[in-house]
Structure formats: structure tokens, C-alpha cells
Amino acid sequence: MTPKKLLALLLVLLCLAPAAQAQSRKGRAPQTSTAAGQLWPVAKANAWYAQHKWISGANFIPSTAINQLEMWQAATFDPATIDRELGWAEGIGFNTMRVFLHHLAWQQDPAGFKQRLDAYLALADKHRIQTIFVFFDDCWNKQASPGPQPAPKTGIHNSGWVQDPGEPTSRDSAAFMALKPYVSDVLTRFAHDKRVLMWDLYNEPGNSDKKDTSLPLLRNVFAWARAVNPDQPLTSGIWAWNLQALNAFQVRNSDVTTYHDYEEPNWHQRVIELLKTNGRPLICTEYMARSRNSRFANIMPLLKKENVGAINWGLVEGKTNTKYAWDTPLADGSEPLEWFHEVFRQDGTPYRLDEVQVIRKMNGK
Q1: Rounded Cα gap, residues 208 and 163, in angstroms
Q2: Are 277 and 302 in contact (CB under 8 A)?
Q3: What is the DSSP string of 19-86?
Q4: How many CB atoms lie within 10 A of CB 302?
Q5: For the chain, how far is it from start to end, CA to CA, in angstroms?
């Protein structure tokens, strides 16, 4: 980790130290209950984490969907493919999927959208898999439109993925306040559903060069979620160490600390050691980029040794094209020399059998 990155992360953690120390003072009983609208006490978060097996899984979108809208809109919701692909995940011992939502799919048909979420959760539960739902996202294409989604662009990573709410709404407080009914409705419907492991309120806020302009929406989505007070913990994962204001808010307001790291093991180890000083359970909600030396063979054992949840990017190659690297498009659509993400081919065979053997071993299969 570069000194600049290390300093930025240390500044975030210094903001947390007084709260962590206050809960660990000798003679004070740890808090395990939470009033509505409040951050979980550290003891409650750790008790929640201890109730679960080691969290292991992938970010999931079916191979037939190019983005969140194609996954969740009524015309393209594909339970047969979801069932089949989650079956492959179960077969290698994965117990958790991180799944992105989109407010435009809800706006078209709130009742139908929630029915499809329930159908997805039923399929996941059938395969002994819990779900982390993600509400908002600052990554990739700035604008989304309901209806038929574009075809993938040949050889380009995530060519059709869309931000939520996207530009300019994410920067406009007057506009994004209209998103509160969406968040409140979905959270209220599934607030006590044990098939939902956790709520990831905002993926990579500040990405796409938005930086601190995403902070108002981040603050608001936490406030909206706290007002519902679901049984499940709330989080938003840190991902860029130079976004100090965002990082500080995310870590200080997340019941469980989550983060993204696509770096090699030595860097990743340092990140874990620093984030553990917060005292809360730790889950890596994105890792595994082969060409960056973030692999199942060297990162997954590290995460298990440190009791850090492990959610890699990608399960099955498909329309997202995330087997191609972020910045290395292949214009002819040929097979990359090495896949960037994904575990399975579309026929269910592993991309690399040795990797699947590592995954199964780590998951006790």
C-alpha cells in the first residue's frame, strides 16, 4: 500500500477510535440492543456475525442479463437461469450472493418488483444461499432507461451496466429525495426476512469522478434505512482510500464494515489489519481480479484465516462481459488470455478446475 493510501485509511480509522474505545472500557457492559435509527453497538454486530457460517460467495447477476434492469424487469426476469446458476454456486459451497437492485425497475411496478425479489429469494433459499441486496451504485454508464436493454458491446467489460440513480440525479438533492419511497418500500417489505443477510446501501459512492458529490445521497439513504430499522445490518463498502470524507462516513455509519480490494495478498493483508482496528465484523464484498494477482488461491485462504467474509466479483460468464478486464477491451471478442472475473462458463463447467477445488476446500465441501 502506498504511503498516501495508508495515511488516508489511518485518518478514517482515527475518527473511529473514540467510539471503539468507549465501548471497550473496563467495567462497562457491552451494548447489544439498538433503538430505531441508531448504529448497531459493536457487541451486537459481532454477535450477529458469530451466528453465521463463514460468509463466502459472489456478486451475482444471471448470465442472461446485461445489467440490473434486465435482471429485475418483468419482461426479462429469468428464474430458470437464476435457479440453475445458483445451483452451481451451492455445489461449490457458496452461501451468500451480493445482488444489485435498480429503482427504475421498482418505479415501473412496485408490487411486481417486490414479487420478483421474493421469487429470487425463494430460489436462493432453496440453494441455501442468503442475499446481500445493493440499492445505489455510482459505477459505469451514467444514465439508465427502462424497457429493453442494449446488447453487450463486443469484448468490453460491463458495457451495459448502469448507475443508480445516475446522472444528474445522484448530485441533485431535490431530485434524489424522490428515491426515499423506493428504499423505504423495499426495506419495509423485507425488513424481517431471514433470507436477506444484509443491506448494502450504496456501492462505490464517489466513483465515475463524482467524489464527494455523492455524500448527500449516501447520508440520506442511511437515514432512510435507519428509519425503517430492519433486522439486518446496514453497510456501504469503502473502495478508494483517497475519498476521505466518504470513507469516514461509510465506516462510522455501517453496522458491519465492508470494503473492496482487488490487490495482491500483501496489500490486502494490510487493509485487513487496519480495518480490524474498528472492532466490527469485516466482509470483503468485492475481490478477485486474476490479472492483478487477486485470485482465489491467494486471497480466499487469507480471508478465511482472518475470518473476513469473502464475496468475489462474478459467478458465470455472460452478457456483462466481466471476463474481460476493466481497461483491456478485446475488439474482436476473443477469449482473454486469462479471465478477469467469473467462476463458471455458461454450460456450468468451471473456468479453472483448480480454482473450484480451492473454493470447495475453503467452504468445507
Answers
A1: 9
A2: no
A3: HHHHHT-TT-PPP----TTSPPPHHHHHHHHHTSPPPEEEE---TT-SSHHHHHSTTT--HHHHHHHH
A4: 17
A5: 34
| Other beta carbons within 10 Å of 128 | 13
CB atoms within 10 A of CB 322: 22
Residue showing cell 476493466 = 326
- Asked whether the beta carbons of 78 and 64 are under 8 A apart, the reply is yes
What single DSSP character describes residue 224? Answer: H
Is residue 360 within a helix (H) or strand (E), and if so which, with residue range? Answer: helix 353-362
| Domains of the chain, each with CATH number or no CATH | 42-362 (3.20.20.80)
How many other C-beta atoms can be found within 10 angstroms of the C-beta atom of residue 84?
16
Name the DSSP class of 290: G
Tell me how far apart the alpha carbons of residues 322 and 267 are, in angstroms, rounded to a whole number: 23
Amino acid at 196: V
* Burial label, 139 (beta-carbon count in 10 A; 0-12, 13-18, 19+): middle
Q: What is the pLDDT of residues 172-222, one digit of tens each?
A: 999 999 999 999 999 999 999 999 999 999 999 999 999 999 999 999 999
Q: What's residue 168's pLDDT?
A: 94
Tens digit of each residue's pLDDT (9 = 90 or more) over 131-173: 999 999 999 999 999 999 999 999 999 999 999 999 999 999 9
Q: Is there a contact between 285 and 200 (Cβ–Cβ < 8 Å)?
A: yes
DSSP string covering 106-120, please? Answer: HHH-HHHHHHHHHHH
- pLDDT of residue 5 exceeding 70, the answer is no
pTM of the entire predicted model: 0.94
Q: How far is CA 249 from CA 237, 255, 281, in A?
A: 10, 12, 17
- Helix 296-305 / helix 265-276 crossing angle, nearest 10 deg: 20
| Nearest of 248, 235, 227 to residue 196 by alpha carbon | 235
What span, in angstroms and rounded, lies between the C-alpha atoms of 261 and 360?
Answer: 22
